[in-house]
Automatic annotation (TrEMBL), chains A, B:
It is found in: Cytoplasm. Its EC number is 3.1.2.12. Its main location: cytoplasm. Keywords: Cytoplasm, Hydrolase, Serine esterase. It comes from Babjeviella inositovora NRRL Y-12698. Belongs to the esterase D family. This is S-formylglutathione hydrolase. GO terms for molecular function: carboxylic ester hydrolase activity; S-formylglutathione hydrolase activity. It comes from the Eukaryota. It is an enzyme of class 3 (hydrolase).
Amino acid sequence: MDINVYLPASYDAGKIHATPVLIYLAGLTCSPANGAEKAFFQPYADKYGFAVVYPDTSPRGAGIDGEDENWDFGTGAGFYCDATTEKYKDHYRMYSYINEELPVLLAEKFAGLDFDTVSLTGHSMGGYGALAIYLKNAGKYKSVSAFAPISNPSNCPWGEKCFGGYLGDDRAAWLEYDPTVLIKKYDGPVAPILIHQGLADAFHYRDNQLQPENFLKASEESKFKGKVSVNLVEKFDHSYFFIASFAKEHAEHHAKYLGLVGPSL
Amino acid sequence: MDINVYLPASYDAGKIHATPVLIYLAGLTCSPANGAEKAFFQPYADKYGFAVVYPDTSPRGAGIDGEDENWDFGTGAGFYCDATTEKYKDHYRMYSYINEELPVLLAEKFAGLDFDTVSLTGHSMGGYGALAIYLKNAGKYKSVSAFAPISNPSNCPWGEKCFGGYLGDDRAAWLEYDPTVLIKKYDGPVAPILIHQGLADAFHYRDNQLQPENFLKASEESKFKGKVSVNLVEKFDHSYFFIASFAKEHAEHHAKYLGLVGPSL
C-alpha cells in the first residue's frame, strides 16, 4: 500500500511517541497524493506540531475480476469497511487497515509518532470513513471532523453500491458502518464533531449522496446532542479548494483535542 | 486565457487599490491550476493580506501547426517572451501578457487589487519568467523570488529550444530575456532576491537546466551584489512538494516588500 506521511518541523525521531497524528481519509478515486498535494494541512501541522497520514483509498492490483470497472466501486473506492462477500473479502479490508494494521506499521517506521494520540478527518467517502471509524472505536481517537462526508451511506446510491458489493445484501451489516446509525448507540467520551458542507456541491444538493443533515438530526438523539457542528458554506463545491479553504479550522479543532493548544484557542 | 486568482480574507472590493498582488508564474506543462492547487501560498496570502494571481503558461488552441507536439515548447511552454518568429509572433506573447495586458484586465475585474504594488514569483520556467520580468522593468515590481528557476536560459537545452523557436537563431535577442545577463545591466531599485533550489532535482544536477549558481555569480558583478540568496536544500526535487515546503518563506519575503509587515519580520 502506498502512503504519504507529513512530519512537522518539530518531529524528532529521538523523541519516542511525542508527535500526535491526524489521519486524513480521502474520497472516491483518490490516492495518497490528493490530500498531500491539495488539502493544505501541512502549514497547520507545522504550526501545532502534529503529523498527517494520507492512506490510499483501496487495495491496488488485487487482481479481482471487475475491480477496475467503476470509479465508485473497487479500486479507489474501498469504502473503509471489511468486505465479507466472496470476491472481495480477502483484499478489501480498509477498515482493519486504517484502524489496526497501518498504525502498527507506521509506528515501526516512525518511532517519534504517538499512535495513542490520533484524530481522524476525511473528505466525502473519507469523511464517512473518519466518522465511522471514530464512532466504532469509542475513546480510541481524540477527535473527528469531516468535509462533505457521505453521512448516511446505507441510504444513498454510493453507499448502496459499495456496501452491497463489499458486505452483501443484508442491510443489517451495512448499519454497522453507517455514522448516522452508529452515533445513536455511541457510549464513549465525546469531543465536538466539526463538519463542513459546500452548498454548491452537486453531490449534496443534486444527488443526495451526502446528507449531513441526517447525521446532525441523529446526533440530537445521542451523547453528541449539541456537539455536532455542520457548517453549510455558500458557493463551495466538492473540490479540494473547498477542503483547503477550511483546513485551518479543522486543524485548529484537532490540535485542541490532540493536546497541542490550550482551551483558549 | 484561463486564470486563477486568490483573494485574501481581507480583500474588499470597496477598498479601491488596497490589496497588493503576488503573481505566481508556473513551469513547463502547467496550467493556472497547478500553483493554485498545490503551491500552498493561500494560507500566507490570508495572513499577510495579498492576492495571488496564477496565469496560464501559454496561449491555448492558437491553431499553430506543431504547437502541441512537445511538452517543452508551444502549448504549456510559452517561456514568458514575445515571439518574433513568423509562426509564433501573433499569439505567443507571454511577456507582454504578464507584464501589461493581464494587470489591466484584472484591475477592471477586481477594483480592490493594487497593481502598483506587485511582486513576482515562479517555478522553473516561471522562476525564469519572474526574474526576467522583474529585471527588465526596473522599479515596477516590489520584489522577486523563484523556485528552481531556469536561471541562464540562453545556456541550457530548454532555453535554447524555446528561445530558438520563439525568437529565432540570433542569440543576441535571447540575451534580452536571460536573467543571468539582465542582472548585470540592471540599474533600478534593489530588493533582495530569494531563490530555493532542491539538491535532488534532476533537472539541476543531471540535466544542467537550472544553473542558479550562474545567476548568483553574475549578481556579484551587479547592483545585487550580496543581495541574491540561493538556498540549496537537500533531498528536495522539482515537484510542488518542494514549492509548498518553502512557500512560507517566499510569502514572508514578498509580504515585507509589498509593505504588509514591518522590517522586524
